[in-house]
Amino acid sequence: MRIDGVILAGGGGRRMGGADKALLPLAGQPLILNAIARLEPQVYRLCLSANGDPARLAFTGLPVLADDVSQGPLSGILAALEASEGADALVSVAVDTPFFPGDLVPRLWMADDGGLAYATCGGRAHPTFALWPLALRAALRDWLAAGKARMMDFCAAHGAVAAPFPGGTPDPFFNLNTQDDLAAAEQAIRCAG
Fold first, then answer.
1. How does 41-76 read in b/e, with b if 16+ C-beta sit within 10 Å?
2. N- to C-terminal Cα distance for the chain?
């Protein structure tokens, strides 16, 4: 089996004052490098989903895929599925979630033997952390063409299975939306070190 990966780095960062989250520093390095370090060992091939000037992420050495039509994270996932020829599935992660599990990919795969699966933790769904079989490309293309963009609606319509993950300190799916969140993540890293 071959599983590719995509880091979703296309968010507008509105609650961060419009900052490009992928480039925000955490523990002395851009968030994008943290996400790469966590996901790259778990996948066959890795790419980035980001709109705007791809040159800003050239330092990563990874392909940067733009959305054909930007309808949120599902657009980035479709672009990555289209680029993952030869893979069995694609795993997506969000760039602004610095503590996601080091065993994300195998746990998502085992949740439904390679079927559509998304992470849950503490009773909350985290559909940006999901395994997307390549067989769903056409269905996702049609979904977006119909103007639909909600991730959980797509997951429900296509029989997605929840993959439970244990909580922890810090929360493995702690999402950095504000400067306070970024400061809390820095503190968590200092305490762990």
1. ebbebbbbbbbeeeeebeebebebbbbeeebbbbbb
2. 36
Q: Residue 40 phi/psi, 5° resolution?
A: -55, -40
**Banded pLDDT at 69 (limits 50, 70, 90):** confident
| DSSP code per residue over the chain | --EEEEEE-----GGGTT--GGG-EETTEEHHHHHHHHHGGGSSSEEEE--S-GGGGGGG-S-EE--SS--SHHHHHHHHHHH-TT-SEEEEEETT-TT--TTHHHHHHHHTTTSSEEEEETTEEEEEEEEEEGGGHHHHHHHHHTT---HHHHHHHTT-EEEE----SS-TT----SHHHHHHHHHHHHHH-
pTM equals: 0.94
For residue 67, the model assigns a pLDDT of 79
Q: Report d(CA 22, CA 35) in Å as an integer.
A: 9
